[in-house]
Amino acid sequence: MRRWRATALLLSLVVVLALVWSSPLRLRLVSLDRFARPLDSVTVVDRHGTPLRYERVDGIDRRWVALDDVSPHLIAAVVAAEDHRFWQHHGIDWRSLARAMVMNGLPGSPLSGASTISQQVIKLVYRRPLGLPSKAIEVLRAVVLEELMSKREILEQYVNRVPFGDRIQGVSRASQAYFGRSVSDLTVAQAALLAGIPQAPSATEPRRHLARATRRRNVVLGRMRETGVIDETTYETALREPVRIVTAPARPYEAPRYVDRALDAWAGGRAMVQDGRLKTSLDLELQRAAEDAMRRAVSDFHTRGVTNGSAMVVANQSGEVMAYVAAARRGEDAAAGQMDLLRRRRQPGSTLKPFVYALLFERGGTAATLLRDVATPMTGAVGVSFTASDYDGLQRGPVRARTALASSLNLAALDAARRVGPDAVVARLRRLSFGGVVSAEHHGAAIVLGGIDISAEELAGAYVALARGGVGIPLSLGLQGSEAAVEERLFEQQSAAVVTDILSDGRARADAFGNDLEDLAGGTFALKTGTSTGWRDAWAAVYDERHTVVVWLGDPSGRALSEVSGFEGAAPVAARILRLARERAGSNGALPVERKGQRFVRVEVCGATGLLVGERCKHRIQERFVEGTAPRRRCNAHDEDGSVRLSGQYAGWVERTRPGGVSRFARFVTAGELEVVQPQRGARLFVEASSRVSEVPLRAAVGGREVGNVSWEVDGRGIDGSWWRPTPGEHEVVATLGGRRSAAAKVRVEVSSRALVE
């Protein structure tokens, strides 16, 4: 019954075909849009051509090839095996159709569909539903296809769409996968083997079924001889040729999150593939070395809470990313091992300070400018009142900008931020593309200490701008076809040069941290570290004239570390990675940044005031200045014995710290009214419900200058000293100095679950 149904279908097809062929609507049966070239599979490679990943599209491994680039042997083998009258018919092989009608009607004969290559192309493009009626539509479409396309165009569609087992589609990838050679260079025997696979791909895939594939090859060779495309000698030679199938190469899976981004750019039309390869800027050798260094760093600090880390290496001149360690520990058993930690935002600690100092230098400051490293109460995020401290708990009073930045002094950085203004700080951080910036009111003064959330990638871009003399450039994966990088000046050249000079001062670093790290980096380099509130993040950013490296260590869940600082944890591994990048600079073509050099001059200044040395200056130092910016005024702030005289703004600090080498102070200011400056009138102070209540320092000023020797009252009761332990509720704070009494500063103290910003 089944055979007679097939025969009846084929007979009726002839009638239907005649009717359809006479209709002008027949061309609507085929839409040429469906024959558009599909996306090829792609091999993502590093800058040297080393594979990073073989990426299939929709699970299919394919690469389109023009018919002119296909071996004539393979074309002949395909036609002989599948449709030897392909060049003569118009979509239907009437002889084969007649034979099929007869054969399908004879008991014991195999079923024959008489499909031509044109019909198979229709099936590959439209897919054939189960059932015999679809065969009729397939034949009709094949006839129309022959009217719309040339024979060579149809054959090109076939050889690029036909399956070859193991999810391989098309002759180009099949030739590379099984023989390791171009489809244009196949021997007759190899061409015959490939041509025989599509009839039963799962049964003749040569790696698993070599014997079947060889038998099928021999059948195809026989048909080639029968149709006259090869002679007897060629046939015999091809039969004797041994079948050598190359071993399937290991599928690389390097820098997974980096490759994901490259593929996203390609899929979005923002990158081009050439010869099936998507070339990137990554250096796989540097990538692997950086991964090893990061894994060791995570292991070294694992007992102190570090569970993962990330690192990025950027070529400063081009902005190309050369190493991209999205997670030092990968895999499902690692904390956030599948995530891109380079793009996760965390608090950056002190790594933001150089950008504030750059603003200070743009406004006339120099490395010798004095800053107040004095504890001053201020308002942080969401109105939280707090008093910052330096990492060692000390207050250094007047300190030069070089020492303050190299030593990462919090109090001096806050003074720098106050001088340039919070709005300017926020505006600059926005220009640097830090996505976590909201407003000066939202973040408060603590923004300079890392009171925003940023990503390592954003931080790398900002430091690249410093390394490039203040000119920013978008970070790039080096993909061909991507948009050309647009440079933008983000810092004044002079200010960027001074920041880089300070951050590259190994002696200043060693004075502050006891270790220079230049031996790890293999030479001079700029370094800035950061440690976030509560020891949750350890950061380091390092750079030279060729490379910028950013490293983050911590726990992705945000758990606090056991006092792992940026200098102790992140800086050494960042320096090691910079050395690795330097060693690869020649092969990677990483050139020094092309920028106009800033000429520095050495000038002897007073270490206490930053001015040109005077007769009584005992502490003399050689400071570096950009030519034309050195101070012109001489220091006269010393008594005959050399002790320094400070202004009244340091009176409170002197009272609290009793520093040596200070002779007298302008503390007894008579002009102006006495006022409470901390806490400010109308302030809302927050105390934590989950921890002990911290003391709040009390400050008073006359004529805008802070004064000491002040007596204090809170709610009418005197307190000892100048520190107050607040309790929830409303309070009045009053200062008394030399018989003068200030107006009451009314404040409100509230309970908050939010951690105070450090």
Task: Give an overview in words.
With 758 residues, the chain is of the alpha+beta class. Among the domains are: 2-30 and 63-240, Penicillin binding protein transpeptidase fold, CATH 1.10.3810.10; 600-664, no CATH class; 668-752, Immunoglobulin-like (Sandwich). Helices cover 35% and strands 18% of the residues. It has 24 helices and 31 strands. Strands 22, 26, 27, 29, 30 and 31 form a six-stranded mixed β-sheet that branches. A five-stranded antiparallel β-sheet has the order 7-6-16-15-14, sandwiched between helices. It has a three-stranded mixed β-sheet with strand order 2-1-5, with helices on one face. Helix 4 (117-126) crosses helix 6 and helix 8 (188-196) crosses helix 10 (210-226). It starts with a helix and ends in a 6-residue tail after the last strand. Mean pLDDT is 87; it is low at 108-112, 665-670 and 753-758.
